[in-house]
Amino acid sequence: MALWLAALAFGLVAAAPAQELPSDLEAPSLMTTPVILMNGNRPISQGTGFFFASTTVDGAVDTVFLVTNYHVVTGRAPMAPGPRAGDRIRFILHESQTELTRVRQIELALYDVNGNPNWVMSDAVPAADVVLIPVPPEAYRDIKLWVFSEGHTRGDIKIRPTSSATLLGYPYGFYDESHFLPVWKTGHVASEPAIDFDDLPTFLVDVSAFPGMSGSPVLAVANGVYEAEDGSMRTGRVLKLLGVFSAMPVVRERKPADPSGASSDTQTTEINLQLGYVWKAVLIADLAKSYRAKR
Predict the structure, then answer these.
(1) Closest alpha carbon to 276 in 250, 243, 247, 252
(2) Is residue 155 within 8 Å of 149, Cβ to Cβ?
(3) CA-CA distance, 172 to 188, in Å (whole number)?
(4) Cα angle, residue 77 at apex, residues 271 and 167 outer, rounded to 5°
(5) Alpha-carbon torsion, ordered 17, 169, 69, 83, to 10 deg
(6) Which of 30, 186, 228, 249 has its CA 20 to 30 A from that of 215?
C-alpha cells in the first residue's frame, strides 16, 4: 500500500518517494471519481467525489477521505427533512497510473449498524453541503493512491473575481469510460472569493455545469505566468484546491398564466443563472483535521 501526495506543482511532497506519472496525465484526474448512490443493489443517483488526506505533523498521510456533497449521499439538501435515499456509495480507484483501464470498484456503507452516518460534516455550519467519508486502508491496499491534502489549499496563486476556476467531474454521467477519467470544465470566479457569500463559507463560480458534477473539486490551475498571493508575477505550474462544487442557484419568476390578463392565475418559471456554489477548501481541511475515528 502506498499513498502519494501530489504537491502544489503536480509533483510529490518531499516526504514521499519519487514516482512518475505519464507526462501527458495530470494527477487530479486520478484523484477524482464518480460517486454512485446505491440503495441495496439499485443505483439511485450519480455525483462526483475526490480524495483528500489528513496528515501527521511530519507530513505522512493519516486518514484518506472521499469528499463529496451531503445531497450526493442522502438525496436531499442539508437540514432538509426526508428519508435517506440510499444506504451505500460506489466509486472507483485506479490501480495503475500507466494502465488506466485497471480500476477497483469500491462500495462503502453510509451508515453503521445503529443507523448513524459513517461520514463527517460540519457542526459549526450545518447548512454546508459537504461530507467527508473515511476510506478504510484495505480499500486501497496495493494501490499507489494520489490524494489532495491541506497543502493544496494554500497554493501560492492569487484568486480574484474573474480568475479561472476548473471543475473535474462527470456531467450527466458522461466521462472517458475506457479509462475512467473525468471531464475538466473551466469557468470563472463570480463573487469576491475572500468574502463568505451570504455569510456562509462559499463563493460563486460562473461555469456551465450539469447534474452529475455535484461534489467536483474546484481548482485554480496556472501553467506559465501567474499572479502570486503577494501580487508579484511568477512563472511555473501551480495548483490550488479552492473547494467543492455544490449546486446551481435557480431564480423562480412568477408570471401571469394568461398574458391577456383575463385570468389571475400565475405560473412559475425557473431560471438557471449558470452560477454555482463552491464550499471553500478551508472547510474540508478543518473537517479532516478534526476527524477522530470511531472506536
Answers:
(1) 247
(2) no
(3) 21
(4) 65
(5) -130
(6) 228
